[in-house]
From TrEMBL:
Residues 233-242, 271-287, 325-336 have a biased composition (Pro residues). Residues 159-185 have a biased composition (Basic and acidic residues). The keyword Ligase does not apply. This is N-acetylmuramoyl-L-alanine amidase.
Length: 570
């Protein structure tokens, strides 16, 4: 029997070794850059981070360690990773620019087919303001725009620095081989050092590829998945006039006096005690119930039915009756209305904002001269935002003077049913990969025209976002899911922009067809402190030298302004 404890200890030790080996096995399958930092949560998604290492001659060599030169091509090949749906490249310092061309291709789950090489576009212009705590935070990083790729389980990425020509021995300029490198990259750049007097731009430190899984969205609380549409002036009716219908039964409460005559019956012996002449005056003075009452008897509570006695003016005592008896007649209905008017207002529709938030919106709409109906807005709970990953609290501006329109450059290969997943992926990329305090845009619109609440803090409030570098204060950012450089934006999305901006700008008394001024916080188009004249509905490119919101979407802003003004009744 003494061997049993030894055998148990041996068995436990064997199981522990086997479990440890099983846990280590997946990591052993991905040497080099595929050793991914991962964060997992059952419903909120996960992020895998793959370092981008120098490429060896002949292709993607994951066994090459980073060298001191740090100016050559970078890449990673991870044919077997956990499923993900969105990719992006990030680096350590947000102020460090990426002078390089970034491309990725992914393998679809199920079919196993590899996509063509796709571009990851610049993103430094859609960020917190330069001097903001959000930008200066130790958690903040630089990064490319994220790209939606759908369900994938394999990835390859390459980063090719910009090449600049240098002078040869005779002082003649030497052109870059392949100009912008596009042809070579599309055919499979081999990453070899560029010769012939061409120098590659230095890459920022900490380059890594982020693979984002949006996870499964939890079911929103009942009635909190969307904010229903409201009229232009969402002022609830005054409760006082609407309450009398409920108070009609109140005057009937004194009806129990019908039973009062039974109580005087108990007092019949009282008149018999005194001499008969004293009881005589009581007979000509009938009570409403027809029963007599002793002159000294006090009426019971609620003895009045609210109706005047026969032959008597309402509210006046009759001769021979105690002066206090008729007083309940006119006063009995009065307390009831006062009690009902002091009650709470009717509860709002379960899909609306909480009463406090709705009240603030009502106040703003009432004070504004031109307002528009509030469109239906899918809440953060409706698209499955994980509130635990964002920074607590909110940052507000004093007002909203400009609505900046963006495109997310995440691509157009998504269905409307996938839009919540795309939002959760972007949200996680903004917070976990770029280190922002929350989702960057204030609102997002999908290709079907659905409007989504973005950064938390209240849809009717002046929440400061991270969408237009240098102009996030006193503005709001509206992003349309997709890329509209060459593709025409859907008509439903354009109409939704007009509805949303008409409503939100109306709360702050802004004319969608007007202009205003914002002071730049610093950027590549306007220096810090410059007062810039802008359209109230402006494109991102109006405040920053960027292609956003895409040539095709930018051309639609004129019609958006016109429609929004019409919705405000201008």
């Amino acid at each position: 029997m003494g061997t049993i404890p030894i055998m148990r200890a041996y068995l436990a030790s064997s199981i522990g070794v086997a479990c440890t080996a099983a846990l280590a096995l997946p990591l052993a399958l991905y040497p080099g850059p595929a050793h991914a930092r991962a964060e997992r949560a059952a419903t909120s998604g996960s992020t895998q981070s793959l370092p981008l290492l120098p490429l060896a001659s002949g292709g993607l060599d994951r066994g090459v360690a980073a060298s001191g030169g740090d100016t050559g091509d970078r890449g990673v090949a991870a044919p077997d990773v956990r499923p993900f749906s969105l990719v992006g490249v990030v680096w350590d310092r947000p102020s460090a620019g990426l002078r390089a061309r970034v491309q990725v291709r992914t393998r679809a789950v199920g079919s196993g087919e590899w996509s063509p090489w796709r571009e990851l576009l610049p993103y430094e212009d859609e960020a917190p303001d330069p001097d903001s705590p959000e930008r200066r935070s130790a958690r903040a990083h630089g990064g490319t725009a994220p790209l939606w790729v759908g369900d994938s389980d394999g990835v390859q990425a390459r980063v090719r620095p910009e090449r600049t020509a240098t002078a040869d021995a005779d002082g003649r300029a030497v052109a870059d081989e392949g100009a912008d490198g596009r042809a070579a990259a599309d055919e499979g750049a081999d990453g070899r050092a560029v010769a012939g007097g061409v120098r590659a731009a230095a890459l920022p430190a900490g380059l890594r590829l982020e693979l984002v899984d949006p996870g499964e969205a939890p079911a929103p609380p009942p009635g909190r998945g969307a904010l229903r549409a409201l009229p232009a002036h969402p002022v609830p009716p005054r409760p006082v006039p609407s309450r009398p219908a409920r108070t009609h039964p109140v005057p009937t409460r004194p009806a129990p006096p019908q039973s009062v005559p039974t109580r005087p019956a108990r007092t019949h012996p009282v008149p018999s005690r005194p001499a008969p002449p004293r009881s005589a005056p009581t007979h000509p003075a009938p009570t409403p119930g027809g029963a007599g009452a002793a002159p000294g008897a006090k009426p019971s509570a609620g003895s009045s039915s609210g109706k005047p006695s026969a032959g008597l003016p309402s509210g006046k005592p009759s001769a021979g009756l105690p002066s206090g008896k008729p007083s309940p007649d006119p006063s009995s209905p009065r307390p009831s209305p006062s009690k009902t008017t002091a009650g709470p207002l009717p509860s709002p529709d379960p899909s609306t904002q909480p009463p406090s938030a709705l009240g603030a919106e009502v106040t703003k709409a009432s004070a504004a001269g031109h307002t528009a109906p509030r469109p239906r807005i899918i809440t953060r709970a409706g698209w499955g935002a994980d509130e635990k990953i964002r920074e607590k609290g909110h940052v507000y501006s004093k007002t909203v003077k400009v609505a900046f329109i963006h495109h997310t450059v995440t691509g157009n290969k998504y269905s409307c049913s996938q839009a919540p997943s795309v939002l959760r992926s972007i949200y996680r990329y903004h917070v976990k990969s770029l280190g922002w305090r929350d989702y960057g845009y204030n609102f997002t619109i999908d290709k079907c025209g659905k409007i989504y609440e973005g950064r938390s803090g209240g849809v009717a409030k002046a929440v400061r976002g991270a969408h237009t570098l240098g102009f996030n204060t006193n503005s709001m950012g509206v992003a349309v899911l997709g890329t509209f450089s060459t593709k025409k934006p859907p008509a439903k999305a354009v109409k939704a922009i007009a509805k949303l901006t008409a409503w939100k700008l109306g709360l702050f008394k802004r004319n969608p067809r007007g202009t205003t001024h914002l002071v730049s916080g610093g950027g590549n188009k306007y220096k810090k402190g410059t007062s810039v004249k802008l359209h109230v509905i402006a494109g991102h490119r109006d405040g920053f030298a960027t292609e956003c919101p895409g040539k095709r979407l930018y051309k639609k802003l004129g019609s958006v302004r016109k429609t929004a003004a019409r919705l405000q009744g201008r």
